[in-house]
Amino acid sequence: MRKKIEKKYYSLFTGELSATISFAGVWVFYLKLYSSLEVHLTSYYPLYAFTLLEFILLQGSLYWYLKLKQVRQNIFSSLPPTQLRVFYLLKKLNLFLFAIGAIILIYQLTTLSTKIYWFLFLYLFALVEYINYFHIRLSYLSPEEIKEFKRQKGFKSSKLAKELNEYK
């Protein structure tokens, strides 16, 4: 049982970290390959949304790393209160950063900026990742997980959300 959980957490940790690194690599690749996109990718608003997405993905990587570390020590409970406090504060910080993003979105809508498409895509992507980590589990990858999703008739709280609820 421990090996199965360890394998799952390792996969989640490395997957999130790989996504973070890959997205940064694709960003740089696009800048080098498509110089016409540079003005859209390096301007403040899309860069803000991209940084927000990367920040959220790093939080997910950290969470799964800490869970993996626990399992390797044969600990199958919630994270310690000190670590949960960090994630609680990150959750609050994320909301603040999303509020800034909402202001940017409103500004871009009122000015009809052409950079809104990149910003909106990245902002929504970051929002989905935030919801997936801190509220509702949105990713169901394996056939077992998809069957479980159908049986439960809807979404369930994410693992981090459950731990944060216990922490409060």
Kindly describe this structure.
It is a single chain. The chain is globular. The longest helix has 32 residues, at 2-33. It contains seven helices and no strands. The chain is 80% helix and 0% strand. With 168 residues, it is an all-alpha fold. The mean pLDDT is 87. The two termini are 29 Å apart. The relative contact order is 0.12.
List strands and helices in order, with pairings:
Elements: H1 2-33, H2 38-41, H3 44-72, H4 81-111, H5 116-134, H6 143-152, H7 159-167
Helix pairs in contact: 1-3, 3-4, 3-5, 4-5, 4-7
Task: Note the main attributes of this structure.
single chain, 168 residues, mainly alpha, 7 helices, globular
Short description:
By secondary structure, this protein is an all-alpha fold.
Q: Can you count the helices?
A: 7
Q: How many distinct beta strands? A: 0
Largest sheet: none
Identify the overall geometry: globular
Main structural class: mainly alpha
Helicity, as a percent range: over 70%
Please indicate the percent range of residues in DSSP E strands (runs of 2 or more).
under 5%
Q: pLDDT average, as an integer?
A: 87
User: Element order, helices and strands?
Assistant: HHHHHHH
Extract low-pLDDT stretches: none
Q: How far do the termini sit from each other?
A: 29 Å
Radius of gyration: 18 Å
